Amino acid sequence: MITKKDVDHVALLGRLELTGEENDMYTRQLNDILGHFQNLERLDTDHIQPTAHVLPLKNVFREDVVGRHISREEALANCPDRHENFFKVPRIV
Amino acid sequence: MPQYETVIGLEVHIELKTRSKIFCNSTTEFGGEPNTHVCPVCLGLPGVLPVVNKKVVEYAIRAALALNCEIAEFSKFDRKNYYYPDMPKNYQISQYDLPIAQHGCLEIDTENGPRKIGITRLHMEEDTGKLVHQGTITTTPFSLVDYNRAGVPLIEIVSEPDLRSPEEARQYIEKMRAIILYTGVSDCKMEEGSLRCDANISVRPMGMEGLGTKTEIKNLNSFKSLLKSLSYEVERQIETLEEGGRIIQETRTWDEAKGVTLSMRSKEQAHDYRYLPDPDLVPMEIDRNWVDDIRRSLPELPDERKERYVEEYGLPAYDAAILTNTKELADYFEVCVKAWPNPKAVSNWIMGDLTRLLNSSGQEITGCKIAPENLASLLRLIDKGTISGKIAKNVFEEMFTSGRDAESIVKEKGLLQISDESAIIAIVDEVLAKNPGPVDDFKAGKERALGFLVGQVMKASKGKANPEMVNKLLREKL
């Protein structure tokens, strides 16, 4: 059962500011989603291997070779704010 | 006041020396203009797909084997979510419940003999970008980010809370560094950040079973700051408890300038990483043959090598430990001993004069101009009596600066030891004639006067006379 407090906590972790109404709505929606997964819990999974990935793939590697970089201007092109050659971000703590 | 016991566990981050980053082909080269060693993958742009660098897995396995870990059969990558701009994605790709290796150990030498320190786990992850603040992190108006380092491969090695003093923690790190350097997977430069350390530390009344509340100290970038910050924190925690206070579980940062640890209380403390398997990366099944191949390719590690030096070369454990501390120094020693099989003499020269000159000139053994074979020839010249031990020191310094071999220096400077009896007798006669006082003293039974006369003969021969012959001839004459 997800409480309003849980939603506040998750909102804080994601740096989201929620109104009381929004919190109500997300609490209800998240509980609906959990309820849906509770249906799945009714299945007998005793003989099913745990899954770490949905695709039947493993050991996909690349060789240790240096490739092309993008230019600094390209790197910084989409950032909301820059200072000289750096990404500029608000104070962190 | 009750006795307290200190409990320390360390988390060591080591950058792997691959050419390219862990999930993309950007370079790992240190330095570089800000935000130039980047590509869409390590910048976390939408729609990109990370792919694991195979060399990273190989190096992680290599380090893990050297640290006596068990290698996982099945391993995967997870996302560690946090809100901090040192990663552009708002998560760091790391390993959570299925790390590449677990259950290792390394041995340190304590006052009470050797002790095994447990290694809980070793996992792979990507390094973060670098934040630049104006002033301190709490007062800066804004921060600047350089993502060159984001995505450089790291291994994180977590120890058990087995360390019992700041000094043991220092030993653990030094041993870890020595072992990893032997494996060649990292250059472990603390000053460049390729070896970093966080410490978990708590105190408890002696004899208590459980653990006290711990604090985590970050920002330890030298052996010295590790030792100093842990010592400070031990005192702070004991003082707090003695005053009836309690320890708050928190992250503290080491302020090198003030010599104190400071609380980093903030929203960031609300750590809830919400790990989830990274759906962009597929799991790994580690082939046992691959592990065996890597195991076979490991060099002899410091502990084994040290033991062999004691057994095979008959060296004291102290010499053996110093010589094997780095692979390069041990290799140097072995080449030298091969050419001049007198291990203790070689060890003395390497640990004494060679180390002194290397330290004072700020050089590494790898850049040393004296080839090990040349050191061997110098020692041979001393042993044969071609030059005296004292002259040898001067020749050695000349070899160190010029890189020339011992024979040609000795020949050019006319430093050959004088072992010709008639030549020495001539000098002895001269010295005896000039020093009637000491001669009488000796004849009156003052043994010390002989030392003075030997010194005078050596001086007159510019240090080249064979001291044993000088002694013998002086006695005969007197």
Describe this structure in words.
The complex is a heterodimer of chains A (93) and B (478). Chain A has 93 residues and is α+β, with helices and mostly antiparallel strands. Chain A has helices at residues 4-13, 20-40, 72-76; strands spanning 61-62, 82-83, 86-90. Chain A is built from three helices and three strands. Chain A has a two-stranded antiparallel sheet with strand order 2-3. Chain B has three domains: 4-291, no CATH class; 300-413, no CATH class; 421-477, Arc Repressor Mutant, subunit A (Orthogonal Bundle). Helices cover 40% and strands 20% of the residues of chain B. Chain B has 15 helices and 17 strands. A nine-stranded mixed beta sheet of chain B has the order 3-7-8-11-1-12-13-14-15. A three-stranded antiparallel beta sheet of chain B has the order 6-5-16, with no helix packed on it. Chain B starts with a strand and ends with a helix.
Strands, helices and their partners?
The complex is a heterodimer of chains A (93) and B (478).
Chain A (H helix, E strand, L loop, with lengths): L3 H10 L6 H21 L20 E2 L9 H5 L5 E2 L2 E5 L3
Antiparallel strand pairs in A: 2-3
Chain B lengths: L3 E12 L36 E2 H13 L3 E2 L2 E2 L2 E4 L9 E4 L6 E10 L2 E14 L3 E4 L8 E5 L6 E7 L6 H18 L11 E11 L9 E6 L2 H20 L8 E5 L4 E4 L12 E2 L6 E2 L2 H10 L4 H12 L3 H7 L3 H13 L3 H19 L10 H13 L4 H14 L3 H8 L7 H14 L1 H8 L4 H13 L6 H11 L1
Parallel strand pairs in B: 13-14
Antiparallel strand pairs in B: 1-11, 1-12, 3-7, 4-17, 5-6, 5-16, 7-8, 8-11, 9-10, 12-13, 14-15
Helix pairs in contact in B: 2-3, 5-6, 7-9, 9-10, 12-14, 12-15, 13-14, 14-15
Number of strands of chain B: 17
Structural class of chain A: alpha+beta
Order of helices and strands of chain A: HHEHEE
Low-confidence regions of chain A: none
Which terms summarize this structure?
heterodimer; A: 93 residues; alpha+beta; Histone, subunit A; two-stranded antiparallel ribbon; flat; B: 478 residues; Arc Repressor Mutant, subunit A; 3 domains; 9-stranded mixed β-sheet; 3-stranded antiparallel β-sheet; 20% strand; elongated
